[in-house]
Design brief:
46% of the residues lie in helices and 19% in strands. The termini are far apart. The strands form two sheets. The chain has a five-stranded antiparallel β-sheet with strand order 3-2-7-1-8, covered by helices on one side. Strands 4-5-6 form a three-stranded antiparallel β-sheet. It folds into three domains: 32 residues; 33 residues; 130 residues, 2-Layer Sandwich (Alpha-Beta Plaits), CATH 3.30.70. Helix 4 crosses helix 5. It is α+β, with helices and mostly antiparallel strands. Strand 5 and strand 6 form a beta hairpin. Belongs to the UPF0749 family. InterPro entries: DUF881.
Length: 248
C-alpha cells in the first residue's frame, strides 16, 4: 500500500514539473527576444574597428553630398552668384573646407624604445610615452608659426579640432590612432620650423628626446595635397546640471 501511495504522488508531480518547466522556457524566450542570453564578448579591437568603419562611412556620405552641392552650384550662369561663389570658395579655403596643395613641414612624435629598467633615477614609465600635451604643443606651435592648413595623421584638422589621448592612443574626430603620431602643416617652412624651435612646450619635449629617446623627426616636403576638412563644426562644452550649486 505504501508503494502504491508513493506512485500516486509521483503521478501528480511529474505533470506539474513539466508544466513549470514549460512556463520557465517561455519566459526565457520572451526575455531574450529570440537572441542568445550570453552574447559573445567583443574585443576592444573589434569595437575600435567598428567605430572607425562607421566614421569612414559617414565621411564618404558627406563627401558625396558635397560633390552634389558643388555640381549644382557650377550650373548657375548668374554673374552675381558667381561672385558670391568666389567669396565662398575663398572663405572655404581659409576654413579648411577645400583641398589644398603646397609645401609642408611634417613632425613625427613616437614613444621611446628604451627599456624601463634603463630609466634614470626618479623617472617613471610615463616618460617613455608621447602624451596629449606633446601633440597639442606641436599643433599649437605650427598654428602660431603661420600654418595655412594642417593634418593630424590622415585627417585634415582646423583650429578648433580637439586632440585627445587615452594612454598612448590618440582620439581624433571619432577615430583611434597609435603612435607614431604625425602632424603635417602647410605654410612657409622657415617660419614653421622657427616656431617649433622657439615654442616652450616643444622645447620641453625635446629635452626628453635627448634624455630617454622619445621620437622627434622634422621633415620638409613639396607638392603635398591635403583633402578638405570632413569633421564636425559644432562646439561641445560642459554644462552645469540644473539645481547644482552655482547653477543659475
Amino acid at each position: 500500500m505504501k508503494r502504491l501511495a508513493t506512485r500516486g504522488r509521483w503521478s501528480y508531480a511529474v505533470p506539474a514539473i513539466a508544466i513549470l518547466a514549460g512556463v520557465l522556457f517561455g519566459v526565457s524566450a520572451a526575455t531574450s527576444g529570440g537572441q542568445d542570453l550570453r552574447p559573445e564578448t567583443r574585443s576592444l579591437v573589434d569595437v575600435v574597428q567598428s567605430g572607425n568603419d562607421r566614421v569612414a562611412a559617414q565621411q564618404r556620405t558627406v563627401a558625396k553630398l558635397q560633390a552634389e552641392v558643388n555640381a549644382l552650384n557650377s550650373q548657375s550662369d548668374s554673374s552675381g552668384l558667381r561672385s558670391l561663389q568666389a567669396q565662398v570658395d575663398q572663405k572655404a579655403r581659409s576654413a579648411g573646407f577645400t583641398g589644398v596643395t603646397g609645401t609642408v613641414v611634417s613632425v613625427t612624435l613616437n614613444d621611446s624604445k628604451l627599456d624601463p629598467s634603463q630609466l634614470p633615477e626618479g623617472a617613471n614609465n610615463d616618460w617613455l610615452l608621447v602624451h596629449q600635451q606633446d601633440v597639442q604643443g606641436v599643433v599649437n606651435a605650427l598654428w602660431k608659426g603661420g600654418a595655412t592648413a594642417m593634418m593630424l595623421m590622415d585627417q585634415r584638422v582646423i583650429s578648433t579640432s580637439a586632440v585627445r589621448c587615452v594612454g598612448n592612443t590618440l582620439l581624433l574626430q571619432g577615430r583611434v590612432y597609435s603612435p607614431p603620431f604625425t602632424i603635417t602643416a602647410m605654410g612657409d617652412p622657415a617660419q614653421l620650423k622657427a616656431a617649433l624651435e622657439n615654442d616652450p612646450s616643444v622645447a620641453g619635449y625635446r629635452q626628453y628626446v635627448d634624455m630617454i629617446g622619445l621620437g622627434y623627426d622634422v621633415q620638409t616636403k613639396k607638392n603635398v595635397t591635403f583633402p578638405a576638412y570632413g569633421g564636425g563644426l559644432s562646439l561641445q562644452y560642459a554644462k552645469v546640471p540644473a539645481g547644482s550649486v552655482g547653477a543659475q
